[in-house]
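Deviations from the work plan: none for this task. Representative record:
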Amino acid sequence: MASFDQELDASGLNCPLPILRAKKAITQLSVGQVLRVVATDPGSVKDFEAFCNQTGNELLESGEEAGKFVFLIKKS
Amino acid sequence: MSEQKKMAIIATKGTLDWAYPPFILGSTAAALGYDVEIFFTFYGLQCLRKNLDLQVTSIGNPGMPMPMPMPVLLQALPGMQWMMTTMMKSKMKSKGVASIEELRELCQEAEVRMVACQMTVDLFDFNQNDFIEGVEFAGAAKFFEFAGTADITLYI
């Protein structure tokens, strides 16, 4: 897994909280920095893809790790 | 920012379950960069009160999953609505679903504009002080001013 600048643990949170928390975290990053998000909501897989498509941030990775969903998002 | 997308919502329901869609969609759209305005009318005004007391009931709603089958007349007994609301809230908490208070705050933080329908505020003898800070009071024309140029308009 690539390196990241900040991590957000959204485990246990349900829609739309992982997206809202991620949005807030990304706002605090500088352009080019990477946020790692860990989530347990199965809906978050499609949601983070859609979030990145619509906000222009880059979804570097989307995968599973130890039964949780992990996303790497690069701020654009 | 004329290229910013816009979403307009009319929120007409005042039960715990129906309070979710306007605030979930409003906060999410704002996170996606939308300019959002929600127009609360009739029972939807309950969603804007300082002291939220939103309830849920299975009466008239055969679609609500129940832990056990229960005749409608039993569902109508005193205390049943309170019990169902309590059960729904604890279920939501256990599933990591945000409370309405939390989603409403997230909407406020994201500058989602909330407009209370003045006609129904008067109709139900509400006072402007009954509602949270930042609520605007206006009529149908105000809704159209925004919705007329919106990309998405929802009636909930």
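Chain A touches chain B at residues 12-17, 19-20, 23, 40-41, 51, 54-55 (CB under 8 Å).
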